[in-house]
Amino acid sequence: MTEAAAGRAPGTPCWVSLMVHDMAATQEFYGALFGWEFRPGPGQLGPYARALLDGKEVAGIGLLPSERQLPIAWTPYLASDDVDATAATVRHCGGTVGVGPLDAGEAGRMAIGSDPSGAVFGVWQAAEHLGMAVTGVPGAVAWNELVTRETASVAKFYQMVFGYTEEAVVSADFDCLTLLLENRPVASVHGVGHALPPDRGSHWMTYFEVTDVDEAVERVADLGGHAVKAARDGARGRVATVADPEGAQFALVTSAPS
Fold first, then answer.
1. How far apart are CA 171 and CA 119, in angstroms?
2. Which of the 8 DSSP states describes residue 247?
3. Radius of gyration of the chain (CA)
4. Do the domains 135-255 and 2-134 match in fold?
5. For the whole model, what pTM was predicted?
6. Which option is the CATH number for 2-134: 3.10.180.10, 3.40.50.720, 2.40.10.220, 3.40.50.2300?
7. Model confidence pLDDT, tens digit, residues 181-207
């Protein structure tokens, strides 16, 4: 089991959160799919629960205010030592800040922004809540990927805001690069050109580790979700894209041995 480091370098993906219309049904879905249990989190933004895997925090699920017509989507949070300064840099570099910066009780300070292509992400300055306590094991986050039209311009935004370096994935068929912090891969950017869904636009995709992707896809369907892209073998392992009953899309992956 991979324990996440307590002190995360700025820019490290440190949390994922999902805002939904029906918290009870969503908790039931993910609890059955990943074995999560739930306990209340800070309520500054309304009802919110933290998902636990074997007692360790892995994700958050909150209630979307009825007046907010936002897409139901998993949102990655990137670590920051100073969320106010990061928010200012986001704006300076052509992004927007839609929520915050604001305090989440004693847990920390946060903001939610979007990059110049419109992909939404969070920024988290940890206090009591350090973020994901475990990653890369079945039922926990394995990876985050930005799906966008082309990588070059949007990657520069993340480099300027979070200090990433990039490593191109050499391929004639794919426009893909890896974002690194201190030479450590932390996320990827995948340019899909005109294959970008017009109804979604640029977006971050959260990958959750599972023991058996094909079995997990069947389980998603049994629980009221559906498959978006069938299971396939790729660079990260065997991957499928699915959606939960409210339409939030995420990837399931059985990671290839490193």
1. 24
2. -
3. 17
4. yes
5. 0.94
6. 3.10.180.10
7. 999 999 999 999 988 888 889 999 999
